[in-house]
């Protein structure tokens, strides 16, 4: 037996994030990533390299959206 539920679009109720909120979110995500990699026992150099790759992806994503790096 299948059940149906009413679903609404949450984007209608949330205001777009400010630049400051996005920056804080990015910092939180990156911090969590670094802590997870460190707790998994990866070397600092490996984590540094991973973070460098993420930074490069972030720059490319911002460029593709017309934002400053």
A few lines on this structure:
This protein has 69 residues and is mainly alpha-helical.
What does this structure look like?
- By secondary structure, the protein is an all-alpha fold.
- It has a domain at 43-69.
- The chain contains two helices and no strands.
- The longest helix is centred in the middle third of the chain and has 21 residues, at 19-39.
- The model has no long low-confidence stretch (mean pLDDT 88).
Give the helices and strands, then pairings.
Layout: H1 19-39, H2 44-64
What labels would you give this structure?
69 residues; mainly alpha; 2 helices; 0% strand
Class of secondary structure makeup: mainly alpha
Low-confidence parts: none
- Can you give the mean pLDDT? 88
| Distance between the amino and carboxyl termini | 51 Å
The percent of residues in helical segments reads: 55-70%
Structural Rg = 18 Å
Strand content: under 5%
* Silhouette: extended
The helix-strand sequence is HH
Number of helices: 2
The tally of strands reads 0
Report on the biggest sheet.
Answer: none
